[in-house]
Give the backbone structure.
Amino acid sequence: MRARIDISEVEASTKIRAKYLRALENEEWDLLPGPTYVKSFLRTYAESLDLDAKLLVDEYKLRHERLSEVEMQPISAAAPGRERRRQGPLIPRWVTIAAIFAALIVTLSLLGGEDPQEPVAPPPPPQTTTTRAAT
C-alpha cells in the first residue's frame, strides 16, 4: 500500500530536492549526482518515511554497486624492478648542512665568546672611627 505523501513536504523536511526524490522513487539512478549522494539520500528519505534505512542502502549496494576491475585485483607488493624513484629534497643536502653549521657558529659566538668586563673598582677602605678621649 502506497502512502500519499506530498513531495514538497518531504523536500522541506529532508532538504533533498524534489527532482532527486522523484529519481529515488523511480530508481532512476543516472539522474542522481553519484553513489555517495544516492546512499545519503536513501538514508535520509527512509528515515523521514520511518523505513529501515540500512536495509535500503544495503539493497542499493547489492543491486547497483559493482567493484571495478582495479578494485577486484589482489593487493600485491611492487614488482622487484619497479621501485619508485625517490625524489630528493628541494634544497641540496650541503646547503642544509652549511646553514646548520653557520647557525651553530653564530650561537656559540654569542654565548661563549669573551665578554669584555667592566673594571671593578676596588672596595673602599674600611672606615675607622676615632673617639676622642675626654680630657
